[in-house]
Write a structure and sequence with these properties.
This protein is an alpha+beta fold. The protein has helices at about 125-130, 175-185, 195-200, 220-235, 285, 290-295, 425-435; strands spanning about 5-10, 10-15, 20-25, 30-35, 40-50, 65-70, 80-85, 100-110, 115-120, 140-145, 190-195, 210-215, 220, 235-240, 250, 260, 295-305, 315, 335, 345-350, 350-355, 360, 370-380, 395-405, 405-410. The longest helix is centred in the C-terminal third of the chain and has 14 residues, at about 425-435.
């Protein structure tokens, strides 16, 4: 089949509005089939256009491929859609996750829908790891979002996941798709948006009670964080079923076409100097610790990136808490150990033990003093730790929540979504959190 690939002018579009797709192929004609992601892909429609060939670009500049406009029908439900590009007719639904000929689109509601849950798709993180054009935010300080990849359809930096080799870690298929499928299978309805939408101030004021994120939502802009914090301060709830969240601060180019993050000194990169990033201003924790919003930080957790790891789960510290209702878990039981729930990256809070031996946050890292540590998993010394300096608090993943005006829950591990379909206790906690906070 003739080569074909593409990317969107922006990663989201309102139902009823026009999306611009940039596509290149040497074929005389090509076809785009749209599928809405859920428990099973749902066919949503197609369009056909004349093809035009052009060359690939570089990672830091708009590829300027030919543009094709598509009117998103106003009756399309909010959701994550995959545009499948082909130069031949498709007789059946093709695989949704591929390293080429796929474009990820998020359709947001054309008007407030009345739904109470808003699910955030982390396109900034997808683009940070996207290596289309020969680079990523792990080898340079700036990348364009106007290139193939960014969730699907492009090459990705990172090591394989020993626990799920079906898709690369830093892609939509790895964590977000299973979480969204589980929500649909359990009758949990939500609308969808991207971090670019939240950066621009869209949707959070449209009547939602709960903002949900899952997996690996690592790269945040200042405006996105400010708007999400304002949502919490106005009484909105947040459920973060992931980790390494809000770790890097990115600047967004006007119009949303690019990202920059000055994480390395000139001439250095993650490949040439793994320690080069520490002590630089684009870590959130240096200027405004993410603990103040999330309750936890990767700085007090860690990562195990390569191969299998010692199985770790959360030791329950308050079995009578409402998040454990219906799970059968009691104080002292361990959640998810057999399936290595904790990892491949996890977040924590600086803590100490009270007179009864229960962990309590010290607050020295910015974690709210009323943050409740409901599960804890001390990390082995062979993990990779973000904080290189000595600390008085052990490194541990810390599952928990706190309430300001709104309530924030954190699962504190990237792999939470991986266990949803196989661990009834993980599924029950997820259902309890979403039901209570929405």
């Amino acid at each position: 089949m003739t080569s074909i690939n593409g990317y969107p002018a922006r990663p989201s579009v309102r139902a009823g509005e026009v999306i611009r797709l940039h596509i290149a192929t040497g074929a005389p004609r090509f076809r785009v089939d749209f599928y809405r992601c859920g428990a099973i892909p749902q066919y949503a429609g197609h369009s056909e256009w004349l093809g035009r060939a052009t060359d690939p670009g570089t990672f830091d500049r708009d590829w300027q491929w030919p543009a094709y406009e598509f009117l998103v029908p106003p009756d399309w439900r909010s959701g994550v859609y995959i545009a499948v590009l082909s130069t031949e007719p498709n007789d059946c639904a093709p695989p949704m996750d591929c390293r080429e000929a796929r474009i990820l689109l998020v359709v947001t509601p054309g008007a407030p829908s009345g739904r109470k849950i808003l699910y955030k798709i982390p396109t900034f993180t997808y683009q940070a790891y996207n290596t289309a054009g020969g680079g990523s935010l792990y080898s340079a300080s700036r990348v364009t979002m106007l290139r193939p990849g960014g969730g699907v359809g492009g090459p990705v930096k990172g090591l394989p996941d020993a626990y799920d080799s079906t898709s690369p870690r830093q892609t939509f298929a790895h964590w977000d798709a299973p979480f969204i499928a589980w929500m649909e299978e359990n009758g949990i309805e939500s609308d969808f948006c991207t971090d670019l939408d939240l950066h621009e101030g869209r949707h959070l004021n449209d009547g939602y009670r709960l903002l949900v994120s899952a997996g690996h939502d690592e790269y945040w802009s200042t405006d996105a964080r400010r708007n999400i914090t304002a949502f919490r301060d106005a009484g909105g709830n947040i459920a973060n079923f992931g980790a390494n969240t809000c770790w890097w601060r990115v600047d967004v180019a006007p119009g949303g076409g690019g990202l920059s993050c000055d994480k390395f000194p000139p001439g250095a990169s993650a490949e040439t100097d793994p320690d080069a990033s520490y002590g630089c201003p684009d870590h959130w924790w240096e200027a405004k610790p993410e603990n103040a919003l999330l309750g936890v930080s990767y700085r007090n957790g860690g990562g195990h990136w390569d191969g299998s790891r010692a199985p770790l789960g959360f030791t329950v510290t308050a079995g009578d808490h409402w998040i454990f209702s219906g799970t059968g878990l009691k104080t002292g039981d361990v959640l998810g150990r057999e399936a290595a729930l904790v990892g491949y990256e996890c977040d924590g809070a600086a803590y100490e033990l009270d007179a009864a031996g229960r962990p309590r946050p010290t607050g020295q890292d910015g974690t709210p003093k009323d943050f409740e540590i409901l599960g804890i998993a001390p990390l082995p010394c062979n993990w990779n730790f973000a904080a290189r300096e000595p600390t008085n608090s052990p490194r541990a993943a810390t599952l928990g929540l706190y309430t300001a005006a709104g309530t924030l829950f954190t699962a504190a591990t990237t792999d939470w979504a991986r266990l949803l379909a196989t661990d009834p206790q993980v599924a029950s906690i997820t259902r309890n959190v979403i039901t209570r906070l929405s």
